[in-house]
Automatic annotation (TrEMBL):
Statement: the UniProt record of this protein carries the keyword Flavoprotein: no
Cellular component GO terms held in the UniProt record: lysosomal membrane
InterPro entries the UniProt entry points to: LMBD1_LysCbl_Transport (IPR050854), LMBR1-like_membr_prot (IPR006876)
Record keywords: Cobalamin, Cobalt, Coiled coil, Lysosome, Membrane, Transmembrane, Transmembrane helix, Transport
Location(s), subcellular: Lysosome membrane
Pfam families: LMBR1
UniProt key word Coiled coil: yes
GO MF: cobalamin binding
Coiled-coil residue windows: 261-288
Topology with respect to the bilayer: Multi-pass membrane protein
Protein name stated in the entry: Lysosomal cobalamin transport escort protein LMBD1
């Protein structure tokens, strides 16, 4: 009977996993098809974007699975389950660890080989529609630079010393060293870990830039809404009339046959370009005003406000939790030389208090942690969509519905892959105790007249009584990366607050925000018409 029940649970788990995977693939296909340009779409770039986005979402789901497995091996009374002996628990831990390494290896493959190759191949195809072999060779030559960087990171990781500078007379320090020894005995692939940690630092910079801004911009955009299409169309009509009158005044100067001055010719050219843009805006606004989608959005406007208020409360909750967690590390960790690693919590935060309460009702805590992970992913998408793709102060690409170039989609997916790598550390910063141990408890002997056992939550490292998640051990394999993540959290908080102030000061967005630019061709109007019928 127990075997049958176990087999049934296993089958149910695989079915749920299959359904989740199918849902992820469908979402990725819809998302990519929604934003990609119809005129410039390519099968290879489309499939690459869908695959990379799916890998990012699947990788983000590893953290809840890891927490669930270490919690599932123990009973609520703090004892291990009958089947969870030392060998079985070690096999489960290794399976999760190998799952991380497999997905992270795929991420390395995408970031350093496949996405750069597809990007440069498409760039060569735009410049030269001739020989395919020549395009492949050129793309491989450029991609070789990325492969070289990956090889250097793997070599450095293979020989980098894991020993942290010694600090004597520090109890916290001894616990940190014990964690490193624990990971060292878990078949850790040092070279791959170093490469992934290096990418995680880049993902941290992307999260500071895009996720922090998206967490403030997304809720406030939902609350404020967009301007009315009818009102914008009226203003646009007035602008068209004003530009036409200005053109007539300038052209009236040459009615007697005299040529226009060079200054007037430049002005006429600029006004004609402006007039073309305004007329494209007119066509877009007319389509939006008549579309059923606009009427539907107006009907659910109160629901959008509710969601916006909810998201801004969640964002503020995350920021407060992150601040308290970082402050705890600053006050009670072993310092910079240990990567600000802290075992247990001295200053509790709202999220770290909420998760243990939800553990009493299965599976509310797993639903919450999964929701938090997805929230980070979707706010990152919102941040990238609002800001576009930037290289320092140079804007490379815009993310626009139905008009996004294949290269921009590839960049978007690469950025999301990097942000996903940093997501695990962000969640750990928000709820360190929960990410380390999940809902595990252990038994401790308490003397009260007689010796009796009492269960306690795993707050500090107990090598033989509490199982640490592979996520936690993976995050803290290199102390110097942990130190970088610590300072990155402070930068994340600062950027979020700046983005919140900027978003509050900005007015309502245009109903066609970012969809009509001066460099668009008239043919591009046909790409958007399918969305506004």
């Amino acid at each position: 009977a127990k075997m049958a029940a176990a087999a049934s649970e296993l089958l149910t788990g695989w079915c749920l996993f299959g359904l989740a995977l199918l849902a992820i693939l469908i979402f990725c296909w819809v998302y990519v098809r929604k934003y990609q340009s119809r005129r410039e779409s390519e099968v290879i770039s489309t499939m690459t974007a869908i695959f990379a986005l799916a890998v990012a979402l699947i990788s983000s789901a590893l953290l809840p699975v890891d927490i669930f497995l270490v919690s599932y091996m123990k009973n609520q009374n703090g004892t291990f389950k009958d089947w969870a002996d030392a060998n079985v628990s070690r096999q489960i831990e290794d399976t999760v660890l190998y799952g991380y390494y497999t997905l992270y290896s795929i991420i390395l493959f995408c970031v350093f080989l496949w996405i750069p190759f597809v990007y440069f191949y498409y760039e060569e195809k735009e410049e030269d529609d001739g020989n395919i072999c020549s395009q492949v060779k050129t793309a491989l030559r450029y991609t070789l630079g990325f492969i070289t960087v990956c090889a250097v990171l793997l070599l450095i990781g293979a020989f980098v010393p894991l020993d942290i500078p010694n600090k004597k007379n520090s109890t916290e320090w001894e616990k940190v060293k014990l964690l490193f020894e624990e990971f060292g005995s878990s078949h850790g692939l040092t070279a791959l870990s170093f490469s992934i940690s290096s990418l995680t630092v880049i993902g941290m910079l992307a999260a500071i830039t895009y996720t922090a801004y998206g967490m403030s911009a997304l809720p406030l955009n939902l609350i404020k809404g967009t301007t009315s299409a009818a009102y914008e169309r009226l203003e646009n009509t007035e602008d068209i009339e004003e530009v036409e009158q200005h053109l007539l005044r300038i052209k009236s100067k040459c009615r007697d046959g005299r040529p226009l001055s060079s200054r007037d010719r430049r002005t006429v050219q600029q006004l004609e370009e402006r007039l073309r843009t305004l007329r494209r805006r007119e066509r877009h606004l007319e389509s939006i005003e008549k579309s059923w989608w606009t009427k539907f959005c107006e009907a659910i406007r109160p629901l959008k406000i509710v969601w916006g208020v909810f998201f801004i409360i969640v964002a503020l909750l995350f920021t407060v939790s992150l601040f308290l967690s970082n402050l705890d590390k600053a006050l009670h960790s072993a310092g910079f030389d240990s990567g600000f690693i802290i075992l247990g919590t001295n200053l509790t935060n709202p999220l770290n208090m909420l998760l243990p309460v939800l553990q009493t009702v299965f599976p509310l805590d797993y639903i919450l942690i999964t929701t938090i992970v997805m929230y980070f992913i979707f706010t990152s998408m919102a941040g990238i969509r609002n800001m576009g793709i930037w290289f320092f102060w140079i804007r490379l690409y815009k993310i626009r519905r139905g008009k996004t170039r294949p290269q921009a989609l590839l960049f978007l997916c690469m950025i999301l892959l990097l942000i996903v790598l940093h997501t695990s550390y962000m969640i750990y910063s928000l709820a360190p105790q929960y990410v380390m141990y999940g809902s595990q408890k252990y038994l401790v002997q308490v003397r009260c007249n007689t010796f009796k056992k009492k269960k306690r939550s795993c707050l500090v490292y107990q090598k033989y009584q509490c199982i640490v998640t592979r996520t936690y051990l993976f995050l803290h394999k290199f102390w110097f990366f942990s130190a970088a993540y610590y300072f990155g959290n402070w930068a994340f908080i600062a950027v979020f607050l700046i983005g919140l102030i900027v978003s509050c000061c900005k007015g309502k967005k245009s109903v066609i925000e970012g969809e009509v630019d001066e460099d668009d061709s008239d043919m591009s109007d046909d790409e958007l018409s399918v969305y506004y019928r």
